[in-house]
Amino acid sequence: MTIPAGLNDNGLEIYVFEGKPYAIYQGQSIPFFDLSRQVIDKFRMDMISNSKAFEALFQAGYTDDLVMIEKYVMCRYGGFDTRADLLASGKLIPDQYHDCGKRGQCEMEGHVCSNLFRITSRELQIIKHVAACKINKEIALVLSISEDTVKNHIRNIIAKIAPGGRKPDITAFAYKYKLI
After folding, report:
1. Under a CB-based contact definition with an 8 Å cutoff, are residues 55 and 108 in contact?
2. What is the domain partition of the chain in residue ranges?
3. pTM reported for the whole predicted model
4. Would you place residue 148 in the very low, low, confident or very high pLDDT band (cuts 50, 70, 90)?
5. Does domain 121-176 have CATH number 1.10.10.10?
6. How far is CA 140 from CA 52, 101, 130, 144, in A?
């Protein structure tokens, strides 16, 4: 059994519930802004030091400090993957995938959310089907696209998540990041 960070250790795991950030911290699930000022400031400093993300938030119309932090935390850390987003040592670990439902449509995509994953919403659909052991022909039928289009998507996905990898790497990725 995998126990989420922050439940039985000194880490902190951020997740999004009903459009708001929450944290599992010190054995409790609490609203993000109920965390200590020191913890919130850790995320604030991370946001400020990430000039690309900070500029993207500003350009998208987020100018209030608390609103910016809230959006930043949800986009960059909001995926519930049971691994700590903030380690007991104070180190932040942002590289995770969070399916916010706006992939491929968000003007801040790849700027605020982790750069590690620039997966489009269509690629996410393909990943889920591949991880469910569907063959290309089945995926094409379900998504009403050609098999060649499925193959192209798979090639692009592999290039993003495991350069030089193979199709089974997609399934491993889906399980690792709790996409299925």
Report:
1. no
2. 1-118, 121-176
3. 0.70
4. very high
5. yes
6. 36, 22, 11, 6
